[in-house]
Amino acid sequence: MPQVIDVHTHYVPRGWPQLGEAGPGQESTLPWLRVENEREATIMVGSREFRRILANCWDAGERLRDMGEDRVDVQVVSPTPVFFSYDRTPAEAVRIAKVFNDLALEICEPASGRLLPFCQVPLQDPDLACEELDRCLAAGHRGVEIGNHVGDRDLDDAGIVTFLQHCAAKGVPVFVHPWDMPSSPRLGRWMSQWLTGMPAETHLSLLAMILGGVFDQVPETLKICFAHGGGSFAFWLGRLENAWHERHDVIGGSANPPSSYLGRFSVDSVVFDPSALRLLVDVLGVENILLGSDYPYPLGERPVGQVVRKAQFLSETERGLLLGGNAARFLSLPEEVTT
């Protein structure tokens, strides 16, 4: 029977070594975990509360119980982006990456192959990023999650392109997650950074991949998936296509029109509404959408896959592709499992 594979989940370890010291007279902005009890904790950034979390962030048993309730066979388990450390020196960032990457293996190990760890890398330094990726692959990681930008450097930055070329050469799946959204008084209300900033960040980075010529520079074998349905990209592809033709003098950084790159990337299904999912299918193609949930966070989908399972416009074959077939190819897993 087909596997159900969730490509978008996150972990947080239940503690880690101290990541560094603040400079003289400075408050640390490094993340740490304030443990409340056996099942509850709070991610802290310096003295600021970032997010309250539960034991399903680190406890494989709890994850597997939830997966059973939601009929999920396999989870991809990726870092929580607050730990990326792209604003640190490369040496600090690789040290932090090693801490979390090694702890991710410990979290996933009890699950007998049902939890597949994705690593993080110091993306601000392409050589160190490639080295850490190779170390993690040898240790058992199955792919890599990257943030959608490093400061003001988007995914068309030469160093990031070098890293993506390395991923393509290794056949490593890449999951792109928005992070470090701009802040302002207007975005400080109603979780607007998450509700508008995250979709905009992902849209912007897909533009960088296309208009920055990244898809012209990396092999077609690159396996890359963007979180949260690719943000607002699918809805505004027509506007982008029109601009490429009408103002090619300004935005013509790609060898071909934007629509010609459909099929070169995937998105996950975390859009929460059947009509939004239908738009993804119509614009991006049913083969390019992977089941995702953003588990275990409150803005994720539970039960996992409910929109895909209830979408009446999907045939059973298409539903199977979205629930697991597409992800199996992305991850180089068997599409069928025996019971």
TrEMBL record:
One Pfam family linked to the record = Amidohydro_2
- Report the EC number(s), separated by commas if there are several: 4.1.1.45
Q: Known InterPro entries for this protein?
A: ACMSD (IPR032465), Amidohydro-rel (IPR006680), Metal_Hydrolase (IPR032466)
Which biological processes are named by the entry's GO terms?
secondary metabolic process
GO terms of molecular function: aminocarboxymuconate-semialdehyde decarboxylase activity; hydrolase activity; metal ion binding
Q: Which GO terms describe its cellular component?
A: cytosol
What pathway does this protein act in? Secondary metabolite metabolism; quinolate metabolism
Give yes or no: UniProt keyword Signal.
Answer: no
Q: Which UniProt keywords apply?
A: Decarboxylase, Lyase, Metal-binding, Zinc
The record places domain Amidohydrolase-related at: 5-332
Annotated family: Belongs to the metallo-dependent hydrolases superfamily. ACMSD family.
Q: How does it assemble?
A: Monomer.
Entries under PANTHER family matching the protein: 2-AMINO-3-CARBOXYLMUCONATE-6-SEMIALDEHYDE DECARBOXYLASE, 2-AMINO-3-CARBOXYMUCONATE-6-SEMIALDEHYDE DECARBOXYLASE
Name by which UniProt lists this protein: 2-amino-3-carboxymuconate-6-semialdehyde decarboxylase
